[in-house]
Amino acid sequence: MSKHYRKAIEALQLDLIRLQRGLRSSGKRLLVIFEGRDTAGKGGTIKAITESLDTRGYRVAALPKPSEAETTQWYFQRYVAHLPSAGEFVLFDRSWYNRAVVEPAMGFCSSTQYEAFLNAVPAFEKLLTDDGIILIKYWLAVDQVEQEKRFAERADDPLKRWKLSPVDLVARQKYAEMGRLRDVMIERTHARHAPWFVVDFNDQKRGRLNLIHHLLQQVPLHEEAVPAVKLPKLKGKPKTEQVTDRALWVPAAE
């Protein structure tokens, strides 16, 4: 699938560039939430989406655990600062929905806080969409057998071990519980103005293609074509870089 994947993802990335241009010219605001199992592929999907975009037109919000001060604030407060401005595309790598699945499963919130959150979300998200934000929510699904393979790969790879946190190791044992909480979350927070969509990520590359293709269909915008550019002829002979002090040059790695 590698050759096909590269060709398909590049075509979708061109469509995403057109979408970004459409957002910018229309002033629309797009907010996409990525939730799902650990190892499902949230980070890789966000990277695939943003890889060719203009960095001035999108932001990725991946918030750490709340600070001591943030725990005393209105629950949604720290997320509000990351909402999109006119013409902007914001991607949440996990979001306020931590309180719907991870926090109750791990005992990080009380049952009262959990219930209050589920009651508050529909009204909160309605405020966002009534103000013009386009809100789309994805759950990336992966079976436990496949998830375990990916955990093992991370544990064995020094370049990926940083992705494994103590919370992840405990959460491995709570697959069924998190599935139950996910179902409650979707049932109580799915709405026409703020829909949930579930994407099969047992095959990550196929999952990325399906999700991006679907995302492009959900945004009611005219995609702006990327105009062709004709480079004018260079005047004079091409020059080389001339830095007077050669000691400033970084030496070639051996």
Explained architecture:
This protein has 254 residues and is an alpha/beta fold. It has a single domain (2-248), classed as Rossmann fold, CATH 3.40.50. Helices cover 44% and strands 12% of the residues. The protein is built from 9 helices and 5 strands, in the order H-E-H-E-H-E-H-H-E-H-H-H-E-H. It has helices at residues 2-26, 42-50, 77-80, 102-106, 111-130, 144-156, 166-171, 175-189, 204-218; strands at residues 29-36, 58-61, 89-93, 133-141, 196-200. It has a 5-stranded parallel beta sheet with strand order 2-3-1-4-5, with helices on both faces. Helix 3 links the parallel strand 2 and strand 3 (89-93). The longest helix is centred in the first third of the chain and has 25 residues, at 2-26. It is globular. The mean pLDDT is 95.
CATH superfamily: P-loop containing nucleotide triphosphate hydrolases
The count of strands amounts to 5
**Radius of gyration using CA atoms only:** 22 Å
The main β sheet shows up as:
5 strands, parallel
Write down the domain tally. 1
Residue fraction in strands = 5-15%
Q: What is the level-2 CATH architecture name?
A: 3-Layer(aba) Sandwich
Order of helical and strand elements: HEHEHEHHEHHHEH
Q: Give unreliable regions as ranges.
A: none
* Percentage of residues in helical conformation: 40-55%
* Tally of DSSP helical segments: 9
Mean pLDDT, to the nearest integer, reads 95
Anisotropy-based shape: globular
Assembly form of the protein:
single chain
| Class from helix and strand fractions | alpha/beta
CATH top level class name: Alpha Beta
